[in-house]
Amino acid sequence: MKTAPPIAVLGAGSWGTALAILLAHAGRPITLWARNEAHLADMAASRSNERFLPGITFPESLKIASSADMASIARFEHYLLVVPSHAFRQTLESLYSARAKADMPLEPQSIIWGTKGFDPESGKLLSEVTREVFGENITPALITGPSFAKETAKGLPTALVLACEQAEQGEELAQWFRSPSTRVYPNKDLTGAQIGGAVKNVMAVAAGISDGLGFGANARAALITRGLAELTRLGAVLGGKAETFMGLAGMGDLILTCTDDQSRNRRLGLGIGQGKDIQQVIREIGQEVEGYQTTRELYHRAKELGVSMPITDQVYAVLYKGQDPRQAVRQLLERQPKAEA
């Protein structure tokens, strides 16, 4: 097997840390970077990320960046970004500038990300943002699929997707993440994989609201199924493939996020359905809740493209227009019935 070179993981939240641990356990030399100096110091001292993944010790091959200054990782050639979607563009631009100052080639050999969402400034896919910053010659890739950080970090059985438009490079990158407990499938449909990872967070908020209202398993199953239909409609317009939406990056991730309370997006919906204030719930969760911001971006993108996404419409109305959750459900039920397909 070809030996992988050192990889810098940008973002030390729960998912970024879990992926760094996964890569390190797979024998990759990893440097974990965070934008907060105190967080870096704490991780270096404890050899763990007690803030986001308490009790899980870092493998020896996982190093902590020497500084939150981007210059500390500017000389790497392979990067994995796992920062919130609203910080994605800024992080890439900072990395680009740091490489220029370090007199490095402006295009690194690999840019992978584990972020799920859209660019808040433009509503674009993160692959589009990557190419805007680093140029059209870059070959971006995404690691995605039905996975919770804690289970991945503990080495529990997991299946992921490595989406990359170049098949040979995609297979090589997929190999980096494989371990005895982690199966990683390459997929050339980068567009579809991104859409699946973003839209499922909005549907998880909807499922959480429904469960918080006490509407039961029937309603949850209906929301998941019709949510998959919305995801597929948007994905088809943007150029994604149906088989991606029916696989791990689509249906698999959707089911996981909508049905398990490890999902922060589902927990946001649960709190709203139970009558709690939205910002209060987000504070209680204490980590990034991508579905909150993604709902707004998805709503506007769907309107721009003329794609019917009624569940998204109602989640947007609840989160941003003060719509009563019960009224949102009533509006969904009162829609004119149509053939399912």
What report would you give on this structure?
The protein has 341 residues and is of the alpha/beta class. The protein contains 15 helices and 10 strands. The chain has 2 domains: 7-188, 3-Layer(aba) Sandwich (Rossmann fold); 192-333, N-(1-d-carboxylethyl)-l-norvaline Dehydrogenase, domain 2. The model has no long low-confidence stretch (mean pLDDT 96).
Short description:
With 341 residues, the protein is an alpha/beta fold. The chain has 15 helices and 10 strands.
Index terms:
alpha/beta; 8-stranded mixed beta sheet; 2 domains; 341 residues; 53% helix; N-(1-d-carboxylethyl)-l-norvaline Dehydrogenase, domain 2
Say what oligomer this is: single chain
Q: What is the share of helical residues?
A: 40-55%
SS-derived structural category: alpha/beta
| Shape category | globular
Segments where pLDDT lies below 50 for 5+ residues?
A: none
Largest pleated sheet: 8 strands, mixed
- CATH superfamily (homologous) name of the largest domain: NAD(P)-binding Rossmann-like Domain
By CATH, the topology of the largest domain is Rossmann fold
Give average pLDDT, whole number.
Answer: 96
